[in-house]
Amino acid sequence: MASNTFKQWILPDAKGFNSLQISSATIPSDVGDYEVLINFHFASLNYRDIVVAQGNNPFPLKKNVVPVSDGAGIVVSVGPKVTMFRAGDRVAPTFMRDHVAGPITTAAILSSLGAVVDGTLREYGVYPEHSLVRIADHLSLLEASSLPCAGVTAWTSLYGDRRLQPGDVVLTQGTSGVSLFALQLAVAAGATVIATTSSPDKIKILKDLGAKYVLNYREDKSWGETAKGLTKDGVGVDIIVEVGGASSVRQSLKAVRMGGVISLVGHLDSSEPLDPPFNPMELLASQATVRAIGAGNRQDFIALMRAIDANNIKPVIDRKVFKMSEAREAYQYMLDRKHVGKVVIDLRSSL
């Protein structure tokens, strides 16, 4: 391979991640006035990347897009008008390139990495400086690659319309990247965390991260009521980070307190029907807010990075790190739910 070219994965169509193909591209010799050239070292997967590859993402998909939104790397060069970064800086891109601040917009969604805009499953990429965030000194590039989608989503789940307060009770579900980030951030803020899992082997992991209570939702089919009973005077949970399916939403409605918040992040149990996710009367009875959550804006990412730095939080990375040549295997590993925390791909490894 010539020294001025690099390798990247592309998604020619949305027929599953087995459609992923390796291709070559040329490293830009120069960049635009406000652009930054990054040498990516690591990329990390989200469940959303599987959804995109399977053609189930509700938003547009660019043909031959470079997939995956999360990554971290080193600045190689900057445009002449760039002021925030310089060569050698360690950076991570935002999930939506043009969502700098404020509420979500259609334009922001149409700048999402790994679907409309080329993502991070490649050795080099060019992005505008307004879409990058400097990485906290105590994080490795491998750890930082886990943050742009899962970490920021967890942050906005806790600090969205109703901001997390010390003493709140937070309920998290499972051991996905979003759930574990939410657990760590909630504990750091002085909240009590109730976590759920289906695996007895993962109870210790959740408790070691600071969960006060861990419920096995396979053994306890009424875990929502159980969670509510664990709160003071049985009033219910303040914030729930909801990542499950239809039955999970119903249990969350049983767990949440009057006026509480359910941050609806995803629908991981694809075996369950989407219609209806719950009866409207259940929501009325709860008097809670159910808020759809997407990854936040650049300001949210900066706030997350500051919180991680101030509390010396280390992202949970799965023990198995994949080589660049093993991208398809990494997707399958995540789909099979063999992971704990974030699944990372080492882009420096030889193909």
UniProtKB/TrEMBL annotation:
One MF annotation (Gene Ontology) recorded for this entry: oxidoreductase activity
Stored Pfam families: ADH_N, ADH_zinc_N
Alphabetized InterPro entries for the sequence: ADH-like_C (IPR013149), ADH-like_N (IPR013154), ER (IPR020843), GroES-like_sf (IPR011032), NAD(P)-bd_dom_sf (IPR036291), Zinc_ADH-like (IPR052711)
Domain of life: Eukaryota
Residue ranges constituting the Enoyl reductase (ER) domain according to the UniProt record: 16-345
Name used for this protein in its record: Alcohol dehydrogenase
Lineage: Eukaryota, Fungi, Dikarya, Ascomycota, Pezizomycotina
